[in-house]
């Protein structure tokens, strides 16, 4: 169990903690700014923990590659940790009525589909590298989640629906990046 794998495990451990803050109703008066903006302390804490967890995504891989400590366990846990983090928060946002269920389903379905394709690639002895669209997808999804967790802060002060716009962009880039992975790796899909 090296440092990179410990960071990945920490990301997995943070998932249920984030969900507790998002889904357990603690009856404390929300933080309010003027008449138009209010946010629960739970959401603020969950957003901070999510940002910390999401920021470890690249860190564990960087440490593993730099120190030449890439392991099979790390190859398995890293994408699992990413999927768990995003899926858990998306499902929580649906429960909180902050995200349309169909958007969460599209995003989570793409993650499962590409993960399945990666598994097929591994069985064939090859590794699917992350594409630029996959990296954009991750960045936009994280931006979307943070904006939804923070109730569109600071854009709500100027009445700009950034959270809605970035949600649509996240869905579109997610779908496109999924098609891109499948198109570039269609040789892995047995058609008979």
Protein described:
The chain has 192 residues and is mainly alpha-helical. The protein has one domain: Four Helix Bundle (Hemerythrin (Met), subunit A), CATH 1.20.120. Helices cover 70% and strands 3% of the residues. It has 6 helices and 2 strands. The protein has helices spanning 3-23, 41-66, 72-95, 101-123, 132-149, 162-184; strands at residues 31-33, 37-39. α3 (72-95) runs antiparallel to α4 (101-123), α3 (72-95) packs parallel to α5 (132-149) and α4 (101-123) runs parallel beside α6 (162-184). The model has no long low-confidence stretch (mean pLDDT 90).
Provide a short characterization of the protein structure:
The protein is mostly helical. Helix content is 70%, strand content 3%.
List the helices and strands and how they pair.
Blueprint lengths: L2 H21 L7 E3 L3 E3 L1 H26 L5 H24 L5 H23 L8 H18 L12 H23 L8
Antiparallel strand pairs: 1-2
Q: What is the CATH T-level topology? A: Four Helix Bundle (Hemerythrin (Met), subunit A)
Major sheet summary line: 2 strands, antiparallel
Shape: globular
Strand adjacency order, main sheet: 1-2
Work out the number of β strands. 2
State the separation between the terminal residues, measured CA to CA.
42 Å
- Percent helix range: over 70%
Enumerate how many helices there are, as a single number: 6
Number of domains: 1
CA-based gyration radius? 18 Å
CATH superfamily: CDP-alcohol phosphotransferase transmembrane (TM) domain
The structure class reads mainly alpha
Low-confidence stretches: none
GO molecular function: CDP-diacylglycerol-glycerol-3-phosphate 3-phosphatidyltransferase activity
Keywords: Cell membrane, Lipid biosynthesis, Lipid metabolism, Membrane, Phospholipid biosynthesis, Phospholipid metabolism, Transferase, Transmembrane, Transmembrane helix
Pathway: Phospholipid metabolism; phosphatidylglycerol biosynthesis; phosphatidylglycerol from CDP-diacylglycerol: step 1/2; Lipid metabolism
Function: This protein catalyzes the committed step to the synthesis of the acidic phospholipids.
């Amino acid at each position: 169990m090296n440092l990179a794998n410990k960071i990945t495990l920490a990301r997995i451990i943070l998932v249920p903690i984030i969900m507790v803050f998002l889904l357990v109703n603690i009856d404390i008066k929300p933080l309010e700014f003027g008449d138009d903006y209010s946010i629960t302390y739970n959401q603020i804490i969950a957003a901070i923990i999510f940002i910390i967890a999401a920021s470890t995504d690249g860190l564990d891989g960087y440490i593993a590659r730099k120190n030449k400590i890439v392991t099979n366990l790390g190859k398995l846990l890293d994408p699992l940790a990413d999927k768990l983090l995003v899926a858990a928060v998306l499902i929580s946002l649906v429960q909180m009525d902050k995200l349309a269920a169909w958007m969460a389903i599209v995003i989570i379905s793409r993650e499962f589909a590409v993960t399945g394709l990666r598994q097929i690639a591994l069985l064939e002895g090859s590794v699917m590298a992350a594409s630029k669209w996959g990296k954009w997808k991750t960045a936009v999804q994280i931006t979307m989640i943070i904006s939804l967790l923070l109730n569109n802060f600071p854009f709500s002060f100027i009445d700009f629906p950034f959270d809605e716009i970035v949600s649509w962009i996240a869905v579109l880039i997610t779908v496109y990046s999924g098609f891109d992975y499948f198109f570039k790796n269609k040789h892995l899909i047995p058609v008979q």
